[in-house]
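Two folds, back to back.
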Amino acid sequence: MTAYHHYFITSLDLHTVDLEDFKYSGTNTTALRLINLSDGTLQQILRDWSADLDDSGNIF
């Protein structure tokens, strides 16, 4: 990637991707998070989902 590249990324998990290699490349990278992880309603939904998973990550 160079300064001539422009990226617009909409991903729910971009925060898990290591972008260190592109930090000083001059590339214009824009990313949006489509959900607010600090929202109380979302946190409750995530807790409910987690409670329904067994140790291997499968819903039981």
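---
second:
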Amino acid sequence: EHRDRCENADGKNANDMEDLNHAMEKAAAEITRLTGEGGRLGGEIDLLETDIAATTTNMEERLSLRNTEEAEFKQALLDDSNSVQLIHKAIASMKEFYKRNKIDFAFVAKKAKQEPKYTENPDKAPET
């Protein structure tokens, strides 16, 4: 009876050792697989970080360009506004000049707005 128990215990120990060896092999295979996947994912992460850096640089360049163009646009608006004011001042000065010299300003303005003279029918589109 003691011998049977010892043999059974030896058999159980052998089975347990076999199960543990199999579990260790399985764990080693899983470690190898995960290590390979970790390397692959590390490569993907590096690629994505490179893409993110390029996108960030591109965004900074676009923002700088946008800010430059906005400043140029605002300056152009200011220049246009100043030009309109200068034109109004010039018109006022011309009116004053014509008034002082007793020249009919309306005649000059009308003369500048003469209608074009058509050699053909004005209602007909030109032929191309």
